Amino acid sequence: MLNLVENSRQLKLEVIYEGANITSYISNDIISFSYSDSFNEFDSIELTIENRDNRWLESWEPLKGEKIAANFILTNWENNKEVVLTLGEFYIDDISYSGPPDIVNIKALSVDITSNIMDEKKSRVWENVTLEKIARDIAIENNLELLFLAEFNREFKRSEQKLESSFNYIKRISKEAGISVKIYSNKLILFEDEMYEKTNPVITLDKTNLFSYQLADDDTDTYSGCKITYFDSKLGEKQEATFYTKQRPGYKRGTQRLLFINEEKYVPGETRKQKEEYLAKIAAKALREKNKNAVKGSISILGKEKFISVGDTINLTGLGNKSGKYIITEVQIEYPSYVMNLQIRKVMEDE
Fold first, then answer.
1. Tell me, what's the pLDDT at 257?
2. Rounded mean pLDDT of 326-339?
3. CA 153, CA 173: separation in Å to the nearest integer?
């Protein structure tokens, strides 16, 4: 790969293996390194190294579950100083060898693979609980700290985990509530995208700053409104709520397409009005989940001194009607080029 880093700039990869800094031992052997971060997925790294003297098959042989920490050290990048960008701690998940030439490839995830949260299939039932309570129970049993960063805390009369891992289960029921899930740095994090979309852009990028870009309208699954119906056995009647967006994304005004939902889960509230207000929240969340990817794409840039992360917003200019505020949904960083490939989607206008 072409090294896009100018000679006056220096980029160094620091690797700490099981608490020991091994950078000086492997720096000349590193072939490539990549870092990935994504909504609803584990952060990951991939390290490819020359297996000099067969050491990675003998005394240095890595084991699954061992811990790797990685940092980028930038010198003379945007200012005449040294900047350390911490990528985090990762647990080895996959090891492979090939040759000639002799090479070892190590992949690691941001979650401890020895934890049961990913693999152990469970069947159990929660009753009369909130989404936050379920998430807290799962966090506690897996020795994780819970960060619940959502205003909408869905209530459940009954929720069933059916022969699925706790991580897949909490992702499933969170997505139904319009909430994303990540595990990072020993934390189980539940968050609403809107909270990040409201933040100020961390950087403005003109089209001339991009190595490449690709933007597209997703017209297959967008809606102008959502109509939700629910039969309340307590009140003995069917209830309805409809939520409309200002405009169906990517379509001329007046283009109508309704999303219909027959809500079967418990709807809290003592009065008809309270239940309708709750249904309207569900409808708004469902509509937003469908429409949020109306304009999405990818850009490729040279990495910055300030770390750019998933959930950050950026401002794009020079792209006509596609200019504006975007949220980053995935980050991939390549070493030694320090090229950043960003998956992005356009931030929706306030309803």
1. 73
2. 94
3. 11
3-class secondary structure, 169 = helix
> What is the rounded CA–CA span in Å between residue 90 and residue 87?
9
Q: How far apart are CA 289 and CA 284, in angstroms?
A: 9
What tokens does 191 get?
């968050």
Most confident region among 159-163, 192-196, 219-223, 239-243 by mean pLDDT: 159-163
CA 328, CA 336: separation in Å to the nearest integer?
A: 22
Sign, CA torsion 246/252/255/259: negative
Axis-axis angle for helices 166-176, 131-141 (nearest 10): 160
Domain spans, the chain: 10-109, 116-184, 195-218+294-346, 225-292
Token pair for residue 320? 């006509």
Q: What is the pLDDT of residues 2-13, one digit of tens each?
A: 344 445 788 999
Per DSSP, the residues of 223-248 read -SEEEEEEEETTTTEEEEEEEE-SS-
Secondary structure E strands in 287-349: 295-302, 313-317, 324-335, 339-346
**Residue whose token pair is 């807290």:** 136
Q: Which band of pLDDT confidence, cut at 50, 70 and 90, is reported for residue 249? A: low
**285-318 confidence digits (pLDDT tens):** 777 777 777 889 999 999 988 889 998 999 999 9
Question: In terms of DSSP bridges, do strands 225-232 and 258-262 run parallel, antiparallel, or are they unpaired?
Answer: parallel
The CATH code of the domain at 195-218+294-346 is 2.40.30.150
Q: How do residues 54-81 score in pLDDT, each as one tens digit?
A: 999 998 999 998 999 999 999 988 777 8
- What does the H/E/C string look like for 266-285? CCCCCCHHHHHHHHHHHHHH
The secondary structure of 322-333 as a DSSP string is G-EEEEEEEEEE
pLDDT of residue 158: 85
Report d(CA 225, CA 57) in Å as an integer. Answer: 59
CATH class of the 10-109 domain in this structure: mainly beta
The full DSSP string for 201-212 is PSEEEEGGG-SE
- Determine phi and psi for 277, rounding to 5 degrees: -65, -40
